[in-house]
Amino acid sequence: MVEEKEQIRIGIAEGAILATPGTLMTAGLGSCVGLVIYDDSRLLAGMVHIMLPESPHGRPSHPQKYADTGIAWLYETLMEHGASHAHLRAKYAGGSQMFQALQMEALRIGERNVRAVSMQLERLRIPVLGADVGGNVGRTVWFELPSRHYLIRTARGDERQM
């Protein structure tokens, strides 16, 4: 008998938790960041598709859209599902500069997203075991349980794993 594995597709500004063998996936990562936080001692992981570095107000209707509220949502949700803070680890990809000619800081969303994700993970003291960020190419990512492999495929067809 073949074991069924859950597959969860996460849209832009969305997040989800996986607590069974399966895969979390998100596509369309240009300046956005696809962040996975997982408990390395359990079958438990979550992913958010972060669009912007910070929420314009404290309690947005879609907290996963922003690095500050999305990471807080992911952390709290994992803890509610029984995660151990001491065993949390992170991997993420994205943060491209999709429009190379634009040099205005306000338009460098990819860099700002990566910086915000990094700062939030540091604040929560969650070790980062892998990051594939920057450049000027879009990405699609998959995170698989129980292997904890994070696969990145670029719009150019390159693949890497961390």
Automatic annotation (TrEMBL):
This is Probable chemoreceptor glutamine deamidase CheD. PANTHER family: CHEMORECEPTOR GLUTAMINE DEAMIDASE CHED-RELATED (PTHR35147:SF1). PROSITE patterns: PROKAR_LIPOPROTEIN. Its EC number is 3.5.1.44. Probably deamidates glutamine residues to glutamate on methyl-accepting chemotaxis receptors (MCPs), playing an important role in chemotaxis. HAMAP family: CheD. Belongs to the CheD family. GO terms for biological process: chemotaxis. One of its GO terms (molecular function) is protein-glutamine glutaminase activity. Coiled coil: none annotated. It catalyses: L-glutaminyl-[protein] + H2O = L-glutamyl-[protein] + NH4(+). Keywords: Chemotaxis, Hydrolase.
